[in-house]
Design a protein that fits this description.
single chain; 191 residues; mainly beta; Lipoxygenase-1; six-stranded mixed beta sheet; six-stranded antiparallel beta sheet
Length: 191
């Protein structure tokens, strides 16, 4: 059973998909026709403990493709967004996520957005979805149809462990300052 989520919507991954072990978090987007130039969107995941990041290696993104526990793995860096379906995806092995990790936060950012004068106002048809990686069945999708203008990063959702169950919470929190500012807000020290 697939569920279409809206901002603030939640779905119990454990209850809706008995025996769910591996989840694929996928994201896709297109560029507006008049955008031109090089435009690179990136997805990232942050494994958190009590709302905080205990280990800087728990950031999974284009420069660190997997978490130390290997429970969260990025497929790679698609620098163009060309083609149908997912432009980038992150695989989450729920059984490998250490017991001290209580959430995995997902974001999409524009690489070098300020330098290139780019923002999410230049992006269309953006979406994220979750699927059972073992069966390929889509669990939930979330259309990021809101019109953003100056924002360079969107916090799109979070997988949360709650009383032994996994829940996905859809978000659509747009920010300026890109990935670096977002990471500083999460407590990363950027050198």
């Amino acid at each position: 059973m697939k569920i279409s989520l809206e901002k603030g919507g939640t779905i119990s991954l454990s209850k809706a998909n008995e025996g769910l072990k591996k989840v694929l978090f996928g994201a896709g987007w297109d560029l507006n026709e008049d955008t031109g130039g090089s435009f690179d969107l990136d997805i990232s995941a942050v494994l958190r403990e009590g709302g905080k990041v205990a280990n800087p290696q728990n950031l999974v993104f284009y420069n660190n493709l997997k978490s130390p526990c290997e429970s969260v793995v990025l497929s790679g860096d698609n620098r163009t967004g060309a083609g149908e379906g997912d432009d980038e995806s992150i695989s989450i092995d729920l059984e490998k996520v250490p017991s001290n990790i209580d959430s995995i936060l997902f974001a999409i950012s524009i690489h070098k957005a300020e330098e290139r004068n780019q923002n999410f106002g230049q992006v269309k048809n953006s979406f994220v979805h979750l699927q059972n990686q073992e069966t390929g069945q889509e669990i939930a999708n979330y259309d990021l149809a809101q019109q953003f203008s100056n924002e360079t990063l969107i916090v799109v959702g979070e997988i949360v462990r709650n009383a032994g169950e996994w829940v996905f919470e859809a978000q659509s929190e747009a920010r300026t300052g890109g990935l670096q500012k977002y990471l500083e807000e999460l407590g990363f020290e950027i050198g």
